[in-house]
Amino acid sequence: MFNIFNLQKNYGTIEVLKNITMRIDDGEVVTIIGPSGSGKSTFLRCLNLLEVATAGRIFYNGTLLDQELDSKRLRREVGMVFQKFNLFPMFTVLKNVMYAPMHVNKLPRREAETLAYELLAKVGLTDRAGMYPSQLSGGQQQRVAIARALAMQPKMLLFDEPTSALDPELVGEVLQVMKKLRQDGMTMAIVTHEMGFAKDVSDHVVFMDKGYVVEEGQPQQIFNQPKEERTQQFLNRILLGV
Questions:
Q1: Which residues touch 163 (CB under 8 Å, ≥6 apart)?
Q2: Are residues 47 and 78 in contact, defined by beta-carbon separation less than 8 angstroms?
Q3: pLDDT tens digits for range 137-171
Q4: Which of 44, 105, 148, 197 places its Cα 20 to 30 Å from the Cα of 162?
C-alpha cells in the first residue's frame, strides 16, 4: 500500500526524519515504537500529507504522491486517529461521526446516520449517540474518534499514540477496539508506547530513534531477540525498568 524511499523531514536546521525507507503492505499492521522525539509522529503525518517531506518519495498504491494534487484524495482513503481526539465539541457523538460522510463524501443524511449507528455499535457506544464529547470519558472520546475515522470507509488507518492521553484504566477499551479492527483486516500503522499491544497485534515492528529506523522485523524477533544495542536498551528500559 505504501512504499517510502529516503524520506527526510527538516524543521530549519533540525533533522527530524533521516532517510526513512519502509514498506507497508495491504492488510498489514505495522507498529512504530521508540523514545519520545524520535520522529514517529512526524513520519505518520508525512504519510497522510499533513506534513510536507523535505526530501524523499512516498508511493501510495504505486502512485507517487504530490502534496497539492493528492492530499484530499489520500485523506479519504487513509484516516488518522490523533492523541487528543479532536472531536467537534458542539456536535453530539452521532453528528461527529456523521459529519464527514455527509459533507465530504456527500452521503445522504439517512445513510450517514445508519452508517454512524453501525460504527458506534462497533466501538460499543450506541448508548452515547446523543451525548456531547464533554460528557464522555477520555476512552469513550477516543472510541468516537475511531468511529469517525471509520465513517470515511478508509482503506487504512494511522494511529498516533491513541492511548497516550488516557488514564491507565481507560487504555484497554481503546486497544480492544483496535484489536477488533486488526481481526477485520484493516491495514494500520500505529505509533504506540504499549509494548504488549504492539507485540500482540503487529505483523511488523519498526524501532525509531533520533530520526532513523534503527531496526525493524517481526514482533517476536524485535521483542525477544533484538539485533541492535539501541533497541535492546530501549526495550530493557520500557519492559524491565533497567
A1: 142, 170, 171, 174, 175, 192, 193, 194
A2: yes
A3: 999 999 999 999 999 999 999 999 999 888 888 89
A4: 105
